[in-house]
Amino acid sequence: MRVKVLFVTCLTIFSVSVIGQTVDFDFTEVCYGDTTLLTSTSVSETDPILYWQWDLDDDGQFDDASGEEVKFKFSQAGSFLIGLRILTESGFSSAKYQEVIVGNYPVAYFTYENACANTFTNFTNATQAGDEDVEDFYWDFGDGGSNNYETNPSHWYTSAGFYTVRLIAESSLGCRDTITRQVEINPIPTFNFQFVGDTIFDEGESLTVYAVGDFDNVLWSTGATTSSIVITEGGYYYAEVSNEGCPNLKSFTIIVNARVGITKVITPNGDGYNDYFEIYNIGNHSPCKVSIFSREGLLVYSSTNYDNHWDGTYNGKPLPEGTYYYIVNCNSDELKNKKGSISIIR
């Protein structure tokens, strides 16, 4: 009995067989441009197989090639539905279709940023492979260091210069592409600080600091972008300079000694300057006991916890201009039992 089989083109793998016959085939996974090898693994337990007929264009007709092994070069990459039909000596027939993959070659490419010596240069993989997955990457950064297999690696160049970077991209089917690019690594800019004045000074004084070197831009910790800054307060300062996009940062510390002492003159006229008898940085010395006397020895003011607010008055009335005398006794060695004179000028 002959079995008549109708083949219909579709997008799924299917087979038609009879008892005692198994139709199947293997194929090599290749990249576009290579030859695909189709090999029948079919078996007939009833009688010998006489013919192996192939449908290579998915038109339902097994008229494109014959034989147990067929070599075929596809015209493009993609997934193709290929069919094999066997015919036995007794006239029985079985067939099977399955998808055969032809891989596309990836197009390797990469970009990079932060190309500076003594810091990490970041590489971005921009390889294209159509609908296929690119599974493996091989990086050679051109400086004799270790190779890298990450998708988007970073690499530390210790010296400025030109380096030939190579990327090999390989798809899941083993299709490869290679790109090499010249990468320029720029040097870190060098600079130093030039101090006009001491880095340790007393309150009320100042220091000018210059950034001197080979750079395009500078940004100070104060927010200034000028070549120099004037410092009046103690603390931690830094400057970050850049050249060709490569940064470098240096820092320094300023120490400002708090003023220790007592004002010599008060001018209590309400203008906001020298209106009060002042103990400098009194918060570092409190509590302070203060007594102020006239030339005649009259106690015109006293406080056991002075707060820098005596304005040259006695019983609410302004004292006349002249010289007065104080005794200050604070909770610090610098201002313990301190005596001196103060002038009131109106």
Could you describe the 3D structure shown?
- The protein has 346 residues and is an all-beta fold.
- The chain is built from no helices and 31 strands.
- Strands 1, 4, 7, 8, 10 and 11 form a 6-stranded mixed beta sheet that branches. The chain has a 5-stranded mixed beta sheet with strand order 25-31-30-26-27, with no helix packed on it.
- The N terminus is likely disordered.
What does this entry show, briefly?
The chain has 346 residues and is mostly beta strands. It is built from no helices and 31 strands.
- Estimate the strand proportion: over 45%
- Approximately how much helix is present in the residues? under 10%
Ranges with pLDDT <50 over ≥5 residues?
1-15
End-to-end Cα distance = 135 Å
Task: Name its key features.
disordered N terminus; 346 residues; five-stranded mixed beta sheet
Topology, element by element:
Elements: E1 15-16, E2 21-22, E3 25-27, E4 30-31, E5 36-40, E6 43-44, E7 49-55, E8 65-66, E9 69-72, E10 78-88, E11 93-103, E12 110-113, E13 119-125, E14 134-140, E15 154-157, E16 161-171, E17 176-185, E18 191-196, E19 200-202, E20 207-213, E21 217-220, E22 228-231, E23 235-243, E24 246-257, E25 265-266, E26 288-293, E27 299-303, E28 313-314, E29 317-318, E30 322-330, E31 338-344
Parallel strand pairs: 4-11, 19-24, 25-31
Antiparallel strand pairs: 1-11, 2-6, 3-5, 5-9, 7-8, 7-10, 10-11, 12-13, 13-15, 14-16, 16-17, 18-20, 20-22, 21-23, 23-24, 26-27, 26-30, 28-29, 30-31
